[in-house]
């Protein structure tokens, strides 16, 4: 005899899928495929997932809303683990000029370029306009299956404006369905009105305490690369943030091997991003330290990077990989499906590896263990595609396969 309250009631049941991709790896299946499976949801959580007969035996579906996947694929919502979501202005003219002009010719055109161009435009923008721009980008990202996004500051470069960007993150979290994970990145570049050493001191002694005092961020990130923050400066900033309660992340070795990847392994950051010039030894060190490597093929494409990441080297090194768009003013990319497609074709991942990186890997890079997979007890963040198989999603380049997005158990797109 079944006890009272058993089986538990489902509120929503998704059935009719060609396959469910749980992203819970099995012995011979890295994406945990369940052909023609069923997902049952209760409130914000997954109640059960599996073959239909198994779910029916575990769950009371008598009052559930039945959602027909109509032969499509069900997968976890994407977790975009590296973006610069909040910024002012546009660098479209710069991007267009760089398509046909070399850097010297672009300079002759007197078009503001680079991080500092965005800093100037962002400082001039008020908080409501920054929020409106970021909210519009989030709406488009949601329509492409993204249910959680990490959002870095870094276009303020003073305490007031860095706080303004992080305040936008908090407002976005409260005003729309996508979860926003907030990262402080005052160490994105150096402003022109202060020496580099003095600015590092300002980040450590003024910005970090201010951010932490008001709970504006969870992570602290530094751009450690040739021409930006040195290994010693990055170490100081990341350790100061850690002591204040911010977990460390790092933009590492994007344009030169300056030792940033080795630093990331030594101090145990949660994620190291870019890594275009990281040595094989440094990659192995990151893997041994449990650091997640964040792959961003769309930014390599957007900036015509001289050394795009070959992610098979990361796989061979034993790294856990997250995938992200790196949405930013220098590479305006909103689509995680496109990032998956590029991760396969240009970076060398299999479709299964790319999907896991875009879901469970992204969740890991954001320090989240309650999402990125479809399993009982996890957040009911998922998407339904209008294609019959994962391979079709990767094959249809530029196509947005997302038909329906469910966030915390509710249909939101």
Could you name the ranges where pLDDT drops below 50 across 5 or more consecutive residues? none
Identify the strand order in the major beta sheet: 8-9-10-11-12-13-14-15
Helical fraction equals 25-40%
Strand content: 15-25%
Helical stretch tally:
15
Structural class of the secondary structure composition?
alpha/beta
The global form is globular
What is the strand tally? Answer: 18
- Compute the gyration radius: what is it? 22 Å
First-residue to last-residue Cα separation: 41 Å
Largest sheet, strands/sense/barrel: 8 strands, parallel
**Assembly classification:** single chain
User: Please, what is the average pLDDT?
Assistant: 96
Quick take:
The protein has 15 helices and 18 strands. The protein is of the alpha/beta class and 413 residues long.
Report on the architecture of this protein.
This protein has 413 residues and is α/β, with parallel strands linked by helices. It is 39% helix and 21% strand. It has helices at residues 52-58, 92-100, 103-108, 114-124, 127-143, 159-175, 196-213, 231-244, 260-267, 280-289, 297-302, 311-317, 336-345, 351-365, 390-395; strands at residues 12-15, 19-21, 33-35, 37-42, 45-51, 65-68, 73-76, 78-80, 146-152, 179-187, 219-224, 247-252, 271-274, 292-295, 320-323, 382-385, 402-407, 410-411. Strand 11 (219-224), helix 8 (231-244) and strand 12 form a beta-alpha-beta unit. Helix 5 (127-143) crosses helix 6 and helix 7 (196-213) runs parallel beside helix 8 (231-244). The chain is globular, with a radius of gyration of 22 Å.
């Amino acid at each position: 005899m079944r006890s009272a309250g058993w089986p538990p009631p489902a509120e929503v049941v998704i059935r009719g899928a060609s396959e469910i991709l749980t992203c819970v790896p099995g012995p011979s299946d890295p994406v945990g495929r369940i052909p023609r499976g069923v997902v049952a949801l209760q409130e914000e959580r997954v109640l059960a997932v599996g073959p239909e007969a198994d779910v029916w035996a575990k769950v009371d579906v008598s009052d559930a809303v039945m959602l027909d996947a109509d032969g499509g694929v069900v997968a976890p919502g994407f977790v975009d683990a590296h973006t610069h979501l909040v910024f002012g202005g546009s660098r479209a003219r710069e991007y267009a000029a760089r398509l046909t002009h070399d850097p010297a010719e672009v300079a002759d055109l007197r078009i503001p370029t680079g991080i500092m161009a965005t800093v100037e435009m962002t400082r001039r923008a008020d908080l409501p306009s920054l929020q409106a721009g970021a909210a519009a980008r989030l709406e488009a990202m949601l329509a492409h299956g993204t249910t959680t996004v990490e959002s870095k500051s870094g276009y303020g470069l003073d305490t007031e404006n860095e706080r303004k960007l992080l305040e936008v993150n908090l407002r976005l979290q409260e005003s729309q369905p996508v979860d926003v994970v907030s990262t402080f990145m005052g160490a994105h570049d150096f402003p022109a009105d202060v020496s580099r050493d003095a600015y590092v001191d300002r980040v450590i002694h003024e910005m970090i305490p201010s951010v932490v005092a008001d709970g504006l961020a969870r992570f602290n990130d530094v751009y450690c690369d040739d021409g930006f923050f040195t290994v010693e400066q990055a170490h100081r900033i990341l350790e100061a943030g850690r002591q204040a309660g911010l977990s460390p992340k790092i933009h590492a070795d994007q344009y030169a091997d300056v030792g940033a990847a080795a630093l990331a392994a030594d101090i145990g950051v949660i994620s190291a991003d870019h890594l275009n010039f990281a040595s094989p030894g440094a990659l192995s060190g990151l893997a041994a330290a449990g650091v997640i490597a964040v792959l961003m093929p769309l930014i390599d494409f957007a900036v015509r990077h001289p050394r795009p990441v070959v992610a098979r080297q990361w796989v061979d090194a034993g790294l856990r990989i997250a995938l992200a768009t790196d949405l930013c003013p220098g590479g305006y990319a909103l689509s995680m499906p496109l990032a998956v497609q590029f991760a396969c074709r240009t970076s060398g991942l299999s479709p299964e590896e790319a999907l896991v990186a875009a879901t469970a890997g992204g969740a890991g890079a954001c320090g989240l263990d309650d999402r990125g997979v479809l399993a009982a007890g996890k957040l009911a963040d998922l998407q339904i595609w209008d294609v019959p198989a994962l391979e079709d999603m990767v094959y249809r380049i530029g196509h947005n396969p997302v038909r329906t997005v469910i966030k915390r158990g509710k249909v939101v797109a």
